[in-house]
Design brief:
This protein is an alpha/beta fold. The chain is built from 18 helices and 23 strands. The chain is globular and about 80 Å long. The two termini are 20 Å apart. The relative contact order is 0.13. Pfam families: Amidohydro_3. This is Amidohydrolase.
Length: 538
């Protein structure tokens, strides 16, 4: 079956043919891209013809790093995103409890709070959550996903008291008297998560289907997602089964490249022994890299820095692994056909990751590893040069600027800020910069990311002149980052990422041209059609 799409403003992301007005799709591939006349001549008389009414067409958006299953799970929890105070957290939670009436004693979960938006500028603690309920164990996850707050009932069920030692790579926060506050950081989160009941494969599928439909409506046709530790069991087999069953049922509306979070060497070896490595799977669901979480976040001062935090000299943050542990995991990956990507926000964490990559490449050389660092926020010129020298991908997350701009200068000081969040610099140096949302930490809408990236303002339009505006991305850099560069990150730039003959006919139709609209009006643009393999899915 051939379908000719005409009367379109096609932004191809193909440097050999940047623009077109029509394209021909046969089965699931683009077969001709060019003028209306060229495409109709190639289509023949039996082809269907679709008039796109002058709308803009782009390759389908590809988010290079998010947490799709976590986003799906968060949509079943108390929605704490955008709360402006601890009182509002409490109000929303009481309303949710009164409406949902969960079974007595069942766990109550919420997600999305950010104390940087609170007038109190402090983290909710056990007493704040006790004021919501002492009947239910409560667990509320911060927007960054690196911190949880729990109430006294939860602490009791977890078995945490004032003398419980910190787990390796985590912190049980205590107040000045030594009392556990109910705030659990980094690996200490799992003490709580381990008590929350797991989800079945059937439940995972339904949550995923809801989230997939949501992101598809925004023009996403591919996602690179970290899902394996969403639930307490950390059962990667259930996650893989859920995706594979959705694919078999024809309900997978996006192509999925799984970023495999397997931070324990024994679990990673079990995964490898089961026959999994990067590239195993289909064109719809495929095993991607080993993913490692090496530090925390800026907002809670858990990102690992080389020097102490400017607003709290008592800490440099948390490194989740020792250098030896990180080396072992990454060397094992290189030796067994696994790409690697590492979450690293602080310069200290990035140095550790780069040390491990250099060691692995020396001991287990890979011709084209496409290793990466996700977030790359508190950087230095030296770190960026090491990344360039070693061909390390810089997974940029420009949307995080919208939240971090309100606290990061206090955290690290103006001097370190001069070389941080340097997404334009990375592009101009020649680094490959696939772009991501880190959803549900931030909005999954690529247009929201584009707005912040090109304006260096938050979604309210603040500050007027832009925040460190010299690091604004051009709209062309953003579009390439969410299409061809993201496809490169998954070794799929030969099959997707541009509107080009021979590639999958994955594309999005927009109601405006992001390259011609005033940057301040980017958010007026939205997806009006999403196509996967030549079929409209939304």
């Amino acid at each position: 079956m051939k379908t000719a799409y005409v009367n379109a403003n096609v932004i191809t992301i193909n440097p050999a043919q940047p623009r077109a007005e029509a394209f021909l799709v046969e089965d699931d591939r683009f077969v001709r891209v060019g003028s209306r006349e060229e495409v109709l001549a190639a289509a023949g008389s039996d082809a269907a013809v679709v008039d796109l009414s002058g709308n803009t067409v782009l390759p389908g958006f590809n988010d290079s790093h998010l947490h799709l299953l976590n986003f799906a799970y968060s949509r079943t929890k108390i929605n704490l995103y955008g709360t402006g105070s601890i009182a509002e957290v409490q109000e929303r939670s009481r309303k949710w409890l009164s409406e949902r009436r969960p079974a007595p004693g069942s766990w109550v979960s919420g997600a999305g709070w950010n104390q940087s938006s609170f007038p109190e500028k402090r983290t909710p603690n056990r007493d704040d959550l006790d004021a919501i309920s002492t009947e239910y164990p409560i667990i509320f996850t911060r927007v960054c996903e690196h911190i949880v707050a729990v109430n006294s009932k939860a602490l009791e069920l977890i078995g945490i008291d004032d003398s419980t030692p910190n787990p390796e790579g985590g912190e049980i926060e205590r107040d000045a008297t030594g009392r556990a506050t109910g705030v659990l950081k980094e690996n200490a989160r799992y003490l709580a998560y381990s008590k929350v009941p797991d989800k079945s494969v059937a439940e995972i599928k339904e949550m995923l289907y809801d989230a997939i439909d949501f992101v598809s409506r925004l023009g996403l046709t591919s996602v690179q997602t970290d899902d394996f530790e969403t639930f307490s069991s950390k059962n990667w087999k259930n996650v893989i089964q859920a995706y594979q069953e959705l694919e078999a049922e024809g309900r997978l509306k996006v192509r999925v490249y799984e970023q495999c979070l397997l931070p324990q060497i024994d679990r990673f070896n079990q995964f490898l022994s089961a026959g999994y490595k990067t590239g195993v799977g289909s064109d719809m669901f495929k095993i991607g890299p080993l993913k490692l979480l090496t530090d925390g976040s800026i907002g809670q001062r858990t990102a690992y820095l080389n020097a102490p935090y400017s607003d709290d000299p008592s800490t440099r943050g948390i490194h989740v692994f020792t250098q030896d542990e990180l080396d072992e995991l990454i060397c094992t990956a290189y030796a067994n056909g696994m790409q690697v990507v590492c979450h690293a926000i602080g310069d200290g964490a990035m140095d550790m990751v780069l040390n491990a990559y250099e060691k692995a490449q020396s001991e287990h050389p890979v011709e084209d590893p496409r290793s990466g660092i996700i977030h790359v926020q508190i950087t230095t010129k030296e770190i960026l040069n090491r990344m360039l020298k070693n061909h390390i991908l810089a997974y940029g997350e420009p949307i995080c600027v919208g939240a971090d701009m309100h606290c990061v200068e206090d955290r690290v000081g103006k001097e370190r800020m001069k070389e941080s969040y340097a997404y334009r610099t990375m592009n101009e140096m020649g680094l490959r910069v696939p772009l991501s949302s880190d959803c549900p930490v931030d909005s999954v809408n690529p247009i929201d990311s584009a707005y912040i990236a090109v304006n260096r303002k938050d979604l309210t339009g603040w500050p007027e002149g832009g925040w460190y505006p010299e690091e604004r991305l051009s709209i062309d850099q953003v579009l390439k980052g969410f299409t061809l560069d993201s496809a490169y990150a998954s070794f799929e730039d030969g099959t997707k990422g541009s509107v080009e003959a021979g590639k999958y006919a994955d594309f999005v139709v927009l109601n405006g041209d992001p390259t011609s609209v005033d940057p301040s009006d980017l958010r007026s643009i939205s997806a009006v059609g999403t196509y996967l393999g030549g079929k409209q899915v939304n």
